[in-house]
Amino acid sequence: MTAKKTLNMITQRAVEEGIAMEIGKTSKEYFDACSIIEMNEQDMKELGIMKNTNVHVTSESGEVIVKAVVGRQTCYPGLCHIRQGVWANQVVPPRTQSTGAPQYSGFPVTVESAPKERLKSALELVQGAVGMWKSE
Predict the structure, then answer these.
(1) Of residues 99 and 40, which shows the higher confidence score?
(2) Which of 50, 96, 109, 114 is the most buried (most CB within 10 A)?
(3) Handedness of CA 88, 47, 41, 66 (dihedral sign)
(4) 4-129: which CATH number, 2.40.40.20, 3.40.50.720, 3.30.450.20, 1.10.3720.10?
(5) H or E segment at 1?
(6) Using CA atoms, how far apart are residues 17 and 13, in angstroms rounded to an integer?
(7) Would you place residue 1 in the very low, low, confident or very high pLDDT band (cuts 50, 70, 90)?
(8) What is the residue extent of each domain of the chain?
(9) What angle do CA 107, 85, 28 make, to 5 degrees?
């Protein structure tokens, strides 16, 4: 049985993401910059997650496969980060608390190891979200 843990998700911006967005959201640079989850090393150890392997992230709003990396910024136990963008949007709750902006930070996600699962491209995720992706 795969270990699961509920963590507090915070989406964020990063320099690498900004540079990659200028290249294009379907570029390898954007994929590499944004299809990751930064986690605390202790949480990764507890879940049996090896660095740079895929994980399954689930929230009340959806799910996504991303690559787990040790937090590049301060990442305390129980906290995780996915850069704002296509992969994060799969799990961000639509609640706005009357602000007009979704709840990008401070929501629970469940994380579990998924080393054999494939990361989807930005195009697959966006088109899949609206029922337009036709798998091969």
Answers:
(1) 40
(2) 109
(3) negative
(4) 2.40.40.20
(5) none
(6) 7
(7) low
(8) 4-129
(9) 135
Q: Computed over its alpha carbons, how large is the radius of gyration of the chain?
A: 14
Cβ atoms within 10 A of the Cβ of 114, count?
18
Whole-Å CA distances, 134 to 31, 123, 131? 20, 11, 8
Closest CA to 37 of 23, 62, 54: 54
64 is written with which tokens? 């996504």
Whether the pLDDT of residue 21 is over 80: the answer is: no
Task: Give per-residue pLDDT as tens, 61-95.
Answer: 999 999 999 988 788 999 999 998 899 999 998 87
Question: Is residue 101's pLDDT more than 80?
Answer: no
Contact 68, 36 (CB under 8 A): yes
- List the Cα angle 83/115/19 in 5-degree steps: 25
User: Residue 108 and residue 111: Cα distance in Å, rounded?
Assistant: 10
Taking a C-beta distance cutoff of 8 angstroms, is the pair 82, 109 a contact?
no
Instruction: Look up the pTM and report it.
Output: 0.89
Find the farthest-apart pair of alpha carbons in the chain and give their distance in angstroms, rounded: 42
